[in-house]
Amino acid sequence: MAVENKALNEEIERQKKLRASAKNIVEISKSQAAVDTGRLKRSISFVISLDGKFVFTEAFYGQFYDNSMLEENINTFWDKSEPYDLIYTDDNGDPFQTVRKYGSGRISVNRVPNTKAKKSILDTLRSYRDNVKKAGGIKSFIETVAAKKID
Predict the structure, then answer these.
(1) CA distance linking residue 68 with residue 87, whole number of Å
(2) Collapsing DSSP states into helix, strand and coil, what is residue 88?
(3) Residue 107's domain spans which residues?
(4) CA separation (Å) from 69 to 47, 61, 100, 135?
(5) Please, what sign has the CA dihedral across residues 109, 35, 78, 11?
(6) Which residue, among 62, 101, 59, has the nearest Cα to 78 in the 3D structure?
(7) Tens of each residue's pLDDT in the chain, 151 residues
(8) Could you tell me if 75 and 128 lie in one domain?
(9) How many Å separate Cα 62 from the centre of its chain?
């Protein structure tokens, strides 16, 4: 019983140290972020996933090299044996690029395709095209839509 409590207390202390380290990394990165409209600073954060992995997020300004130093700060201050994810998000908050560091030390970088948005746009265009065909042409379609708006 005492051994279990000791192991549990050690795990709790380890989690507390990791949380403090993550908060420190986020605060430092926010202070180093380029000041635009404040969006970059607001986007820098971390969460702990259900499996206990730390996930850092930041808006991606990489094409202008104006990201904060979040990734460098993680490499400097984060415990090397702890895995983490770093997710860069696009303007809509969707994942754009993911950097994963595994417990073995291996790092992988994946670009996330935004197929959901493309699929939604294509579906909208296809439904528009189909509705125009059902109405008997563009003129009939416009008259039908105008009649529905009046009702």
Answers:
(1) 13
(2) strand
(3) 2-112
(4) 18, 12, 17, 56
(5) negative
(6) 101
(7) 667 788 888 888 988 999 999 999 999 988 888 766 677 788 889 988 888 889 898 887 765 556 678 888 998 999 888 888 888 887 777 777 777 777 666 667 776 665 555 566 566 667 767 776 777 766 666 666 666 655 5
(8) no
(9) 14
- Together in a domain, 35 and 99: yes
Number of domains in the chain: 2
CA pair distance 114, 122, nearest whole angstrom: 13
Q: Using CA atoms, how far apart are residues 102 and 51, in angstroms rounded to an integer?
A: 13
* pTM for the whole structure: 0.66
Question: How far is C-alpha 145 from the chain's CA centre?
Answer: 39
Q: 43 burial class (0-12, 13-18, 19+ CB within 10 angstroms)?
A: buried
| Helices (H), ranges, the chain | 2-32, 39-43, 70-77, 115-135, 138-150
In the numeric block, the tokens 């095209």 are attached to 129
Phi-psi region of 83 (alpha: psi -120 to 50; beta: other; left: phi over 0): beta
Q: Which two structure tokens, joined as six digits, stand for 140? A: 């009939």
CATH number at 12 reads 3.30.300
